[in-house]
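Why ABC transporter substrate-binding protein? Reviewers of the renewal asked for a concrete example.
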Amino acid sequence: MKKGKFLTTAALALTLALAGCGNKEKEEKSVEAAEPSTTVTVYSAGPDGLAANIQEAFEQETGIKVEMFQGTTGKILSRLEAEKNNPIADVVVLASVASMDGLKEANQLQSYKEAKNADKMNAEWSDGDGYYYGYSASALGIVYNTKNAEVAPKEWADLAQSQWQNKINIPDPSLSGSAVDFLFGYTEADGAAWDTMAQWQSNGLQVNGANKEALDAVITGEKDVTIAGVDYMAYKAKASGEPVDIVYPASGTVVSPRAVGIMKEAKHVDAAQAYVDFLLSDEGQALVADAYLLPGNGEIAVKDRATLEEIPQLTVNWRGAEQKQIDVLTKFIELFR
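Here is what the prediction returned.
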């Protein structure tokens, strides 16, 4: 891998990475504080297209105008910090339940226990006191080029074998929050994880930009495999005819929830609650499924992708995970420096 491209401090890494989806978003739009009652201000971390589809459907159903800011989770957290003396956001949608839990612990969210369909959301992805709801999730897997790989790798440890030497990459966790989620969950659940990653390094693992850059290298055949590839991106690429597929190791992988919450200082609480209700509704959850994500409501069918029950999962406790993620990220940076 090329050296010198990692961030040098955990604090800066947190700003850029913690639990963002890692793919490039559409150009971010600045927003002004929304007008009372007829508008709601939403800060949303992708994926590209889903936020816009939800906005359009919500506006059509409710007549409430959405003022939208789209960016990675890290950029949204930075914006919230910059605006702490003059809060603008009513609703935040983050690609990381760990980061959302951090907002709760920092007393920046308000509870909405009465949210419609709250009881249908995955309890492990959501806050029991109603401060946030895991409305969707992605799983991290082994994404491979179907033309280059005669036999697909099946386990994380397989990628230390000589046949994959210099043919593997991983999204840079200083740019991809899902990669941070993977590192955290993998190292928490598997005592041999750090040894396995050291073997990947010895086998020529390249740290290859954010999620999209890592996947693009596999699509073009520059690399054969992406470790900790985001599944919804792989499924979307496959549906578009790209020569890629994904494997979830039988030993288990990380499912990374995405969450929605209402800011404590929200100026338009009724509209914010309506937005959360829509996101948790069957219609909103169907839009989630259309984006190849796993819906928070397990009753909503997915298509052309693995169901949650079909994915071998590592047990991950996301509560209070932010500092642990910083520690894991720092250790990874030191390993691959």
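Residues 145 and 219 are 6 Å apart (CA to CA). This is the kind of structural detail the renewal will allow us to pursue systematically.
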